[in-house]
Design goal:
This protein has 263 residues and is of the alpha/beta class. The chain has 11 helices and 8 strands. Bound molecules: 3-methyl-2-oxobutanoic acid.
């Protein structure tokens, strides 16, 4: 069994072997990922892939706490980051209250909040108060309604410069790592070179310090849509459907349960 990563260990990953981060929302999958992944993210993406909602905005703090508790039970050997849901960090005081609830009610090692320069005061306040913070810059899923869709960032010079300012500001505020999402690869490379903390990419090319994917996307379980950056490492949906169809066929033909599965 490999040793559980720490904040310091993650910081040392800058420019070293890329970090592998994966989401999980329950103990069952977290247990499977525990010996392999470097970091497990309890993402508010659970609102879409687990709860079937159209975006992440209606995720509640209570849901995040419940799912983080489950993930922590399943993956005691992993560094676990819990997402702070939309509306739970609008002010620095509210952010601290929300983060303290996550830290007191779960075994999460860190929290993640979306935003760049505009979140600096909040990040610094959390860090001062003993909360390890992972930043999240670039495409921000919690801004999907205000931006009118999921918009790739870094498409022009102004956006590229803003991303570098965001990364530097978050670093100065004390984040130990950052997720960079939906950013043109050449720009993500420049952003990564502008800071000393590791950048974990999702749709940001391969030159950053790690990658994160939503587990239900990479296992091919989520069928509603597939973003360009998602690689399916398994055709999970087809495998599951085939298995359930086989089960139904055997129930209907009374082939199941057979002698081996009967008392
Ligand atoms: O909620 C989530 O799963 C995330 C990833 C997309 C990074 O924030």
């Amino acid at each position: 069994m490999t040793k559980k990563l720490t904040v310091t260990g993650i910081q040392k990953a800058k420019g070293a072997t890329p970090l592998t981060m994966i989401t999980a929302y329950d103990a069952l999958f977290a247990k499977l990922f525990d010996p392999i992944a470097d970091i497990i993210l309890v993402g508010d993406s659970l609102n879409m892939s687990f709860a079937g909602k159209p975006d992440t905005l209606s995720t509640t703090l209570e849901q995040m706490i419940y799912h983080t508790q489950a993930v922590c039970s399943g993956a005691p050997g992993s560094f676990i980051i819990a997402d702070m849901p939309f509306g739970t960090y609008m002010t620095k005081e509210k952010a601290l209250k929300s983060a303290v609830r996550i830290f007191q009610q779960t075994q999460a090692d860190a929290i993640k909040i979306e935003g760049g320069e505009e979140k600096v005061e909040t990040v610094a306040y959390l860090v001062e108060n003993g909360i390890a913070v992972c930043g999240h810059i670039g495409l921000l899923p919690q801004s999907v309604r205000s931006e009118g869709g999921y918009k790739v960032k870094g498409k022009d010079e102004a956006q590229a410069e803003q991303l570098i300012r965001d990364a530097k500001a978050l670093e100065a505020a004390g984040v130990f790592c950052m997720v960079i999402e939906g950013v043109k690869a050449d720009v993500a490379t420049k952003v990564s070179q502008s800071v000393d903390v590791p950048l974990v990419g999702i749709g940001a090319g391969s030159s950053v310090d790690g990658q994160v994917l939503v587990f239900s996307d990479m296992l091919g379980l989520f069928e509603d849509f597939t973003p360009k950056f998602v690689k399916k490492y398994l055709n999970g949906a087809n495998l599951v459907k085939e298995a359930v169809q086989n089960y139904k066929n055997e129930v209907q033909s009374r082939a199941f349960p057979d002698d081996m599965h009967t008392y």
